[in-house]
Amino acid sequence: MADYALMNQKLFEGDDATVRQLTEEALAEGRQAMEVLEEGLIAGMRVVGEDFKYNRIFVPEVLLAARAMKAGMAVLQPLLTASAADTSAGTIVMGTVKGDLHDIGKNLVGMMAEGAGFKVVDLGTNTSDDDFIAAVREHGADILGMSALLTTTMVYMKTVVDAMTAADLSHVSICIGGAPISQDFADEIGAHGYAADAGSAVQLFKRLVGDRVRA
Amino acid sequence: MRPRLEIIDTTLIERIVDEALTVLETTGILVDYEPAFDRLTAAGLPGNAETHRVRFPRDVVERALATAPSGFTLHDRDGEPFARLEDDRVHFVPASSALRILDRATGEVREASSADFVEYAKVADRLQNIAYLSTAFIPKDVPPDIADGWRLYLALASSKKPVVSGAFTAHGVPRMAQMMGLFRHDLEELAEKPMAIFTCCPNTPLRWAEDAAQNLIDCAEAAIPVEIVPVMLLGMISPATPVGALVLHTVEVLSGLTVAQLIRPGTPVLFGGAPASFHMRLMTNPMTAVEALHVYCSYAQIAKHLKLPCQAYMGLSDSKFNDPQAGAESGIGMFLAALAGFNSISGPGMLDYVNCFSLEKLVFDDELAAHAHRYIRPVEVKEDLPTAALFDELLAENHLLTAEHTLEHWPEELYLPGPMVDRTNWDQWAFQGRKDHRTRANEMINELLDDYDVPPLDEALDAEIRHLFASTCDDPDVVLPEA
Ligand code: B12
User: Is residue A175 within 6 Å of ligand 1 at its C-beta?
Assistant: First the structure.
């Protein structure tokens, strides 16, 4: 019998080897990939998310759990239909804008988003509008995430927002963040979302993808 | 004896330095920028053209340490010697490059303008315990591509004092060097009489990225003194434990120092740093965290062991406002930094994770700096050992208020703080108008501004500098604010 409670627990503990093994065993037993994903992995990550939100666990535990989630996902991915993989979360293209080399915050947002089941395509730092657009197209991204830490580079976000519109990509939600960024600035340049930290960034991504699914 | 703080012993210092030299030689540093990579390999460092990793052989680093000066003199804008950074000589400086300011009139956080910067520079110029200036925050009323140089111009136009500054882009330094050169006969004279320290930050871990690598090379070429400032986040991009963090820190500083010495031997290099902790829940980067303070004071010892001048981001606060947390963090940082013998301490005025600058905090920190300077004075015998004569007089008179010894020594020994440290009793305080710290800070700021009398820049020089910005700005129609 597939023991989803055990799988959730092992995921919570960040035990990636066991999560991989339990995932394989569940499939060998004839369980549907979608069921294993929902009940074994996503249910486990939900607890991780809640516990992090309520200060019961810390960043390292969240990342370990995310790694275990990825280990299980790697087994399931080939078996999930494209549409099933899609409904699990969404695809985010992410990068630090041109002229800016700060990536610690962006990386954390990326790791946390992956932990929540998003596919994250990281373009690194110093990213131009063309590179953002090419990656959004290539990966069919639902969300474009941009980071900037300098007052001198944050203005480039507007360039990218405008270029996205010009490239007919207005349907992609644009989220921004970084120390000099505020909700006001996001509104001013026409970005769809702003978040002050990685935790709320993931909430934001979920909300935006949810809105898109409903729309 | 000068009061001094020691965190680690000599054996550990030697082991850390030795390990750092090994890492430099074996792992090396990623130089993430083709021109800089080419430059360094041409200068003789072994590098892998595919990975862009550059290794620093032990003998090359040791030669660099030998040519790096143990001290240097900062000059004012007129070319007069101003501050000697060496040994245990301590200087407090406003911290650099905040994104925002705390408005002293409204108490709100907001973006800054050139007018705010000029006000800051005038106040900082007048403060007795703030040794020299920094480009403390970014005015948002000029185009971003000239913002780095513009704030240096505003500082130099408002004060004669040297400035801690830095560039925001890979090509930022040459324009700033050119501007500083206008204050001297030529760039060689600027090299002899530097008026600024530039911050160059390696991109931890073990990487020099495009902007910083180019800035470092450009600074060395112009012999502009550089402070190499790694920003560790303990547990995030650095080992969580102090010794591992210190090795990483030392590797990065020595890599920068070696680059500078290869480009121009003798370029002054400060062993700098802004190690922070990483908050495992909030994901913030407190530089005032107690574990970060251990790393700071330990690397001061490493710098001194290597006979290098040193710099730290201490005396700032991660609080949002000038509250008890801000006072405590700033005071603790400034005392520890002074005791550790840091030569240039970037902290005064700064709040909120180096993101917000407050003039009210700056005048308060000036007072803390006075206290810290006082505290590191040697405790010496001053006609008070043996005590017989002094005690006879005390017992006879029941006080020493009018004693020869007191009259001679009290003005030097008993420090009377300025208005930012309130020493009134309750009734005196009430009688004097029940002033809180913000009221007192603003009175002081207004007085300092009234007192301000730094001669303005020579008109032709001023016009030349403004032309430099106007002609090199990306926006050809830029309208520059008044200085
Ligand atoms: C670490 C750091 C560095 C490191 C960067 C290392 C790296 N790999 O990223 C180094 C030392 C290399 C560095 C270099 C420089 N830096 Co710096 N740096 C910092 C510092 C101290 C912390 C940034 C950080 O990592 N914080 C921790 C992370 C976790 O927080 P975060 O980035 O804010 O990210 C969180 C949120 O913002 C949000 N978020 C972030 N991105 C995104 C994206 C999306 C889509 C969303 C939704 C959310 C989101 O979630 C994140 C996680 O919770 C800041 C000050 C500060 N406290 O912000 C200065 C700071 C940003 N740097 C500054 C400066 C000046 C520089 C340099 C120009 C210095 C120099 N002369 O060399 C260079 C710039 C080089 C360049 N072109 O980019 C200034 C900016 C000044 C200004 N007015 O613009 C600051 C404010 C410090 C200061 N006062 O001097 N820096």
Answer: yes
Check B283 against A155: CB less than 8 A apart.
no
Query: Containing domain of residue B250, as a range?
Result: 66-375
Element (H, E) at A67: helix A59-76
Return d(Cα A22, Cα A72) in angstroms, integer: 8
Counting one residue from A and one from B, how many pairs have CB atoms under 8 Å apart? 46
Residue B309 lies in a domain: yes
**Residue that is written with structure tokens 């030569």 in the block:** B343
In the structure, what pLDDT confidence band is assigned to residue B132 with cuts at 50, 70 and 90?
very high
* DSSP 8-state code for residue A36: I
Ligand 1 atom at minimal distance to the Cα of residue B353: 57
Report the run of H or E that residue B191 belongs to, with start and end: helix B187-192
∠ CA B299-B301-B306 to the nearest 5 degrees?
95
Is the pLDDT at B285 greater than 60, yes or no?
A: yes
A103 CB-near residues (< 8 Å, 6+ apart)? A96, A124, A125, A147
CA dist A90 to A118, A167, A197, A212, Å?
Answer: 5, 21, 19, 10
d(CA B312, CA B275): 9
Residues of B in contact with A153 (CB under 8 A): 144
In a domain, B395, yes or no: no
| Cβ atoms within 10 Å of A166's Cβ, excluding its own | 11
Q: Which residue on chain B is closest to A198 by alpha carbon? A: B283
Q: For residue B307, how many other CB atoms are within 10 A of its CB?
A: 15
Contact B74, B198 (CB under 8 A): no
Confirm whether B449 is domain-assigned: no
Quick check: A179 and B147 CB within 8 A?
A: no
What is the number of other CB atoms lying within 10 angstroms of the CB of residue A158? 15
How many domains are contained in chain B? Answer: 1
Across the interface, of B140, B147, B283, the residue whose CB is closest to A59 is B283
Query: What would the pLDDT profile of A25-50 be if each residue is shown by its tens digit?
Result: 999 999 999 999 999 998 999 899 89
The CATH number given to whatever domain includes residue B243 is 3.20.20.480
